[in-house]
Amino acid sequence: MKKQFAVIGLGRFGGSICKSLMNEGMDVLAIDQDEEKVNEFASIATQAVIADSTDEKALKSLGIRNFDHVVVAIGDNIQASILTTLILDEMKVKHITVKAQNDYHETVLNRIGAHEIVHPERDMGIRIAHNVVSDNVLDYLELSDEHSIVELAAGPTIDGKTIVDLDVRSTYGCNILAIKRNEELTVSPEPEVKLYEGDILIIIGADADISRLESYWIDEN
Ligand code: ATP
């Protein structure tokens, strides 16, 4: 059976989640207190309704507790985001994801039952910072405070060398998860595979190790 999602708050973040879930073929109830937003999403979401999510009765009448996953994407109004999360938790919604505006907001959300907290602006800032600091870093995904996955463009230093030659694992403590070459992706490449300048390497490791590996490739370029 299709998973049932509800997205509360149809700003840029909530709106984009709603559209992506619909593209994935999910059922989405889009909720906003702003009529204009709801009209905009009437033709995008499975159903779009005007409601104030801080109104417990309104959420009950929408049957929100039966949804598999509710995303609270209210940004500026931290009070409304917190109260909405509290109501959803009290209704025992199975999975609640909430967008946090700042660390204080996150601390409160953690205490009141949010299952997952996301910081889209902060995370995007970190990703972009990694991108602009190094020409070799094409994308970046933070896995924990200390570990990440990065997409690195292979420079001339490693052109023609195999993964064994580079000894990425023992020298840098990182692992090459995949290689992208001309739109083709090789997942878990064999150690004998040769790398060429322009290849995009998807690497997992501790941040400090990835940094060492990046600076080696950049310094030698
Ligand atoms: P984004 O950056 O994602 O565009 P934002 O961080 O600026 O959003 P807001 O614009 O404050 O966040 O809120 C997103 C949406 O949430 C708005 O469309 C707003 O109408 C809606 N919203 C705010 N409070 C409530 C509420 N209590 N009930 C329902 N919708 C709400």
From TrEMBL:
Residues 2-119 form the RCK N-terminal domain. It comes from the Bacteria. InterPro entries: NAD(P)-bd_dom_sf, RCK_C, RCK_C_sf, RCK_N, Trk_Ktr_HKT_K-transport. Pfam families: TrkA_C, TrkA_N. Residues 135-219 form the RCK C-terminal domain. One of its GO terms (biological process) is potassium ion transport. GO terms for molecular function: monoatomic cation transmembrane transporter activity. This is Trk system potassium uptake protein TrkA. It comes from Sinobaca qinghaiensis. The lineage of its organism: Bacteria, Bacillati, Bacillota, Bacilli, Bacillales.
